[in-house]
Specification:
The N and C termini lie far apart (48 Å). The chain is mainly alpha-helical and 231 residues long. 77% of the residues lie in helices and 0% in strands. Helix 4 runs parallel beside helix 9, helix 5 packs antiparallel against helix 8 and helix 5 runs antiparallel to helix 9. The longest helix is centred in the first third of the chain and has 34 residues.
């Protein structure tokens, strides 16, 4: 128990001291996770809407594939993207391996199935009378899409928060595609794994506390948005 308490005190001191190494990992994490969730939402919401709203051949197969990819292991994503970005891979000439954009690509692929699947579920769960009412009122395709998304906005926000939680807490993609390079691609999770392995328990705890604070803040923002969305 003393070991844990000493670690917590050391973690607080480390955060208050403004340790450059600690805050570098925090800022890198915020940067890559923010870019990754934006890319996941830009790509995933339209695809999820189409999957949940439109009828087309192979829709059921696409839905099953999106649901299956929800449990995609992070190391598998890291391995596949690594193969593409490595020097011998088809995208090796771009020099993205062990860079921040390389991590963003991997994390976007990680978050995309969550956004697509949960957005599709949100659209499928809407009252079917909504579509009929809008069609009766003469709404065009764009108005149908925007109104349906607005009605399912909270569920889409939950999809975004769920995807962000998976992205910010993953280790495999950041480790394999970022290389855990100090001051450059080292994130909170990779730094926690490294420092704890070195016996720097206080620094691992400090980074863990920051990670929990970020998750808590995101959930509080979601609750506020939900309250504002309620009539």
């Amino acid at each position: 128990m003393d070991f844990i308490l000493e670690g917590l005190l050391g973690a607080v001191k480390l955060l208050l001291s403004g340790s450059g190494e600690t805050y570098s990992a925090i800022f890198t994490t915020l940067k890559v996770s923010t870019l990754s969730i934006i890319a996941s939402l830009v790509l995933g919401i339209p695809l999820g809407f189409i999957l949940g709203y439109a009828e087309f051949p192979g829709r059921r197969l696409c839905r099953t594939l999106a649901d299956t990819l929800l449990a995609l292991p992070t190391v598998v994503v890291g391995l596949v993207v690594y193969a593409f970005l490595s020097r011998r891979g088809p995208l090796g000439e771009l020099g993205l391996l062990f860079t921040v954009p390389g991590i963003v690509i991997g994390q976007t692929i990680l978050g995309l199935p969550i956004v697509i699947s949960l957005t599709a579920a949100a659209i499928e769960g809407l009252d079917q009378r909504l579509r009929l009412t809008l069609l009766t009122l003469g709404a065009n395709s764009r108005q149908l899409a925007l109104t349906s998304l607005r009605e399912g906005m909270y569920a889409v926000l939950v999809a975004a928060v769920t995807a962000y939680g998976r992205i910010i807490s993953e280790v495999g993609v950041s480790m394999m595609l970022g290389g855990n390079i100090k001051w450059y691609t080292r994130t909170i999770t990779t730094a926690m794994a490294l420092e704890t392995g070195k016996g720097e328990f206080a620094m691992g705890l400090a980074l863990g506390m920051v990670l929990l604070a970020i998750a808590f803040t995101v959930n509080v923002l979601l609750s506020i948005l939900k309250m504002k969305a309620e009539p």
